[in-house]
Amino acid sequence: MTTYTPPLKDIQFVIHDVLKVTESGIPGYEELSPDFTQAVLDEAGKIAANVLHPLNKTGDEQGCVLENGVVRTPEGFKAAYDQVREGGWTGLDCNPAFGGQGLPHLMNTATGEMFSAANMAFQMYVGLSHGAASALHAHGTEEQKATYLPKLYSGEWSGTMNLTEPQCGTDLGLIRTKAEPQPDGSYRITGQKIWISAGEHDLTDNIIHLVLAKIPGGPEGVKGISLFVVPKFLVKEDGGLGERNRLSCGGLEQKMGIHANATCVMDYDGATGWLVGEAHKGMRAMFTMMNEARLSVALQGFSQGEVAYQNALGFARERLQGRDVTGMKNPDGPADPIIVHPDVRRNLLDQKTLVEGSRALAYWGAELIDRGRLAGDEDAEAMISLLIPVMKGFLTDKGFETTVLAQQTLGGSGFTKQWGLEQFVRDARIAMVYEGTNGIQSLDLVGRKLGSNGGQTMMAFFEIVKSFIRENEGSETLKSDFLDPLKEALKDLQAAVMYFMAEGMKNPLNALSGSYDFMHLFGHVAVGFMWARMAKASLDALEDGASDRDFYETKLATGRYYMARQLPATRLHLARITSGAEPVMALEAANF
Amino acid sequence: MTTYTPPLKDIQFVIHDVLKVTESGIPGYEELSPDFTQAVLDEAGKIAANVLHPLNKTGDEQGCVLENGVVRTPEGFKAAYDQVREGGWTGLDCNPAFGGQGLPHLMNTATGEMFSAANMAFQMYVGLSHGAASALHAHGTEEQKATYLPKLYSGEWSGTMNLTEPQCGTDLGLIRTKAEPQPDGSYRITGQKIWISAGEHDLTDNIIHLVLAKIPGGPEGVKGISLFVVPKFLVKEDGGLGERNRLSCGGLEQKMGIHANATCVMDYDGATGWLVGEAHKGMRAMFTMMNEARLSVALQGFSQGEVAYQNALGFARERLQGRDVTGMKNPDGPADPIIVHPDVRRNLLDQKTLVEGSRALAYWGAELIDRGRLAGDEDAEAMISLLIPVMKGFLTDKGFETTVLAQQTLGGSGFTKQWGLEQFVRDARIAMVYEGTNGIQSLDLVGRKLGSNGGQTMMAFFEIVKSFIRENEGSETLKSDFLDPLKEALKDLQAAVMYFMAEGMKNPLNALSGSYDFMHLFGHVAVGFMWARMAKASLDALEDGASDRDFYETKLATGRYYMARQLPATRLHLARITSGAEPVMALEAANF
Fold this sequence. Notes:
Two copies of one chain form a homodimer.
Chain A: H1 8-18, H2 34-52, H3 56-62, E1 65-67, E2 70-72, H4 77-86, H5 105-118, H6 120-139, H7 142-154, E3 157-162, E4 178-181, E5 187-197, E6 206-214, E7 225-231, E8 233-235, E9 241-244, E10 247-252, E11 263-276, H8 282-288, H9 290-318, H10 342-375, H11 378-409, H12 421-429, H13 438-449, H14 456-472, H15 476-506, H16 508-512, H17 515-543, H18 549-566, H19 569-578, H20 582-585
Parallel strand pairs in A: 3-6
Antiparallel strand pairs in A: 1-2, 4-5, 5-11, 6-7, 7-11, 8-9, 10-11
């Protein structure tokens, strides 16, 4: 019952009007002309709407089935996967030396948004392979890269990340899986991993597992963790498939959502693996690709919000209940469409402003990743490292919230499986959990990122926003509706940082007790900043005589809603933060 | 995997320390001694924990099945229902003249909370019968009451409410089901109703449907709606079951949650029914019991929050990950329990303060209903009418939020079916929708209740809170930690009312655009007020030398968290309200 329309115009707006990619000076971006990106996005949008979205509901209903060690994905998934693979989408932003398409990460972000919106469970198969390939590209030997990358980029093989074990998720120092060195330089991997997305399935000929394990005798805790590549089928010298490795899928997790993605228990029973990167430096190897992986989860958050919003909007325009209090809008019908009612609009505008603001923020994140990678800009790398926990935590929390709001637009219909909104809620929920729970994101932000470089990157963020405000205060519209609220919100963020500096120094619990609220406060400022940039871009386009005035005026009106109704949340988060550790730590554990 | 422990001590605290029921002067309350209520709650708690909760997960998994017009409830439901029925719980607060137990509604609220927490889908069968019985009691003829009430109170028969049709949910003026008068005084009911909870099932011998329909020739819209009683089996003069009525279950809705409750399409195919109350006054008859029905949904909200919190807390005490930054707490184990971490505590305390505050507010609501009904206090009736949309809307929104927070406490485990938290999320979600969506609650509040009695009831609420503050400002602890924050929050509520008066007068859209935020602003003030009352009660108990000092000190510490970290949300809601209609109404429907 649900539909998905690729938001091509909104995506092009962010890429060209807001980020102005061709003027950015990032190597490779000069090719991203509006016509070129439109052509790429058009094709990806067609696959998302026509191939992936029609499988979203049936995928949820059928789920994955494990029989005799083999996982069967839902009907149509294999054919859809082949289409995605043959279109070159699995290697879009990958190194051409190994068969990738060589486009910037920004383009993969835009296509990834659409694929995720259309069918999140499906896109996870593609996304996880991409992550595994990135880790191998960054840390693998030349031989490993030559062996695995071409097949991973082409999508003939897929990849996974194996971190979690029953006794450890967040605290990876507790890992028990062991890797015993063999005389031939390989390792024997033994242990059990859980919650391995796409750990086993029928979409590809081989599955390349990246596995965290401990080499006996190494250091305790996280400092003794190494990363291994462990293929399902060993690869022969000629690149063909050899014998089956000693690993198997021991069970599938029954979950609230993303039923079409196989969440596997993986048993390694003396499997053959090879060290990736240095021994005992596995965590570092994992962290290399953390920014990309977490940004892709942030995408999942708002992309589920986008598709949910589209369907809520369709319902609100069609469903006839009650009359507009200011005079009926549909006099020939039995009632007016519910979109006339202020509270329905409030609900829809909360959705719309969160989704569009999130997109702009995420794409800025992708641009920063590209600027770091392609232009070697270390400041951009530092900035994206600071922003990543904000993007992952805030955008997935708000993405889930958006799906719940959209479900509410439909009233009782939203609760039924028939209308399909409830699936978006169930699927979006996981994004708040994996790739580090959002609580962990907030600790990463406050405990690690905020103070890194002596706090310089945080100061640089303030300066970016402040200089944008300074440069544009001449415009009355921008000033009153966008820049003044942004300035207030920025003050709240600065006050929170000051509080952490002063009080967190005295007692770290004062900072840690406010970490989650800080992540949200930062998120609102960042999205508010993006709305100000979108407003500026829209005003510029209108001044330049853009033909589609409605589009840009709508952007301005939508942005005004965010600034007036969402951004004031910064004050609440600041109040929570500055109440400090006392209320949080007062109770003994036994008295909860 | 989930457990449920009846929160007897917390419930007794609200009933006796906070509401001080035996001193209240409400007829019937003099019998509610602590020993008596403890005995009742003990028994209800045992059923909740030992009979109903063990069926919660299997009920979700099996759901209801429709075969040849008959609905089969999940395994064990019939036996559990019989146990509830035989214990007299179905008629606990009902009129003894028809076989009810005659206890105050407050006691039904307390037992209802536990039954709902333990198994929401199960308790709906009981709750809907109660609602139907209440409508018949208020509006039925003596003959109708004698025919139906004893069997409904005893639970031998059950009842339903039939309002919604495919083309109308909120806007009941669009109802098409017709009721044609017959020479014998009965009516022939023809039409289709949807989303009829417990419309068909195997728990009782008969099902008494209350159906809204239009008598041909009556007034247009809601003024032409009448209420009918339409039993599944006609009742013979001797009270025995006669022939099958011409009505049937045409299908079961597939839903996100409450799988064990049958949500039916009901087809009335010339069924025989009898008018309840006056012709064309069906809406009024329905509204009579609205307060009770909506309060019971509010209960569902926080009761799912309660059981979710209990399970999140259990996990947080057991799960070992990471170390306390202030020094390890579990040196002999591989890691500390996660409850040591500030952000886990933040999460748990948001849950705990919402649940306990919601309970106090809901029980105050039940007391007001009793005060209106048993003491004939019209001010109490006006107050509960004002508060009901706040309780229904705020407590179900926050109840759902609590289940999501609890699910997050478990990280990845929270997303799995095995741990069971995700069911609480799915079940709690519906409470935001039925008995009038929460958007509709907010319109009822702002559009109808706020201005009724010329606004006197709202002023009376302000006065209740203000005089509580005045009377207790002498206590320094109360003043700084509870009364001062409450005063600030109350000012925000008053400012919102002033805004509606001034700006809503000029343009009703200014009030309607802020209705949802007003409901939440009011909810926070009301729950904040209850926390202040709980703090006062706890201080009193400590001064009186209560033996369980830990309990009361924990209440104080918990309340401080609410006042410091939840209550400041009032300012955000006020900011959203006073931004007015402009941001909400700016966009044309076509430009969303």
